Amino acid sequence: MARKKTRAILSGSDWVSKFPTSKEVADLASPFREDVESFIAALQDAGASIDISATYRPKERAYLMHYAYAIARQGLDPSAVPVMAGVDIEWAHRKGNGQIDLVASKNAAEDMVSDYGIVYAPALSSNHTLRLAIDMTITWSGALELKNASGRKVKISSTPRSGQNAALHKVGASYGVLKLASDPPHWSVDGH
Q: Nearest 5°: phi and psi at 15?
């Protein structure tokens, strides 16, 4: 018996909830996972607040984000997007006469970009897809006294009192958790 071909689902906001990004440190690769756990423990012991928004990003989600952005913001022809196994999406919306509707295709992709909250052009493969990055918002009030990876206390009284603080970046680096300064919540194994 022949298998029935499934019909691809048009691109748009409904895709954003599929293949969710993890927010769990446990989903990171070792030994980066343990480095992040130690850094977060030091931050929490010092009284900082940490809000994790992303760790592991499935390759399917990276594909959806990458091509939605390419169509919406970079003018990629929706019919030129390569197929990805397991992601039955149709990027090219069509008019009643069967011709590609570039406006509808671009609008659907833009809806996805907006709903994902994409700020920078997403890569198909990144430290997130490799389980080697974490997006976390770190804040505190007053001076922050925390231990670096060697156990030495470091007092941070400079501003900003957030993950954008250069002194905090040095402490993170001691744990092997490196800050990408241009992306406020992003920390990774190599700073990218």
A: -75, -20
Give pLDDT, residue 120: 85
**Secondary structure (H, E, C), 33-75:** HHHHHHHHHHHHHCCCEEEEEECCCCHHHHHHHHHHHHHHHHC
Length reported for the chain: 192
Q: What is the dihedral of CA 137, 138, 139, 145, to 10 degrees?
A: 180
Give the mean model confidence (pLDDT) for residues 166-180: 98
Per-residue burial over 149-180, b if 16 or more Cβ lie within 10 Å, else e, is beeeebebeeeebebebeebbebbbbbbbbbb
The ranges assigned to domains in the chain are 21-55+130-188
Query: Each residue of 87-125: pLDDT tens digit?
Result: 999 999 999 999 999 999 999 999 999 999 998 899 999
**Cα within 13 Å of Cα(56), Cβ side:** 15
Instruction: Specify the pLDDT at position 3.
Output: 39
3-state secondary structure of 90: strand
C-alpha triplet 167, 133, 147: angle, nearest 5°? 35
What is the pTM assigned to this prediction? Answer: 0.86
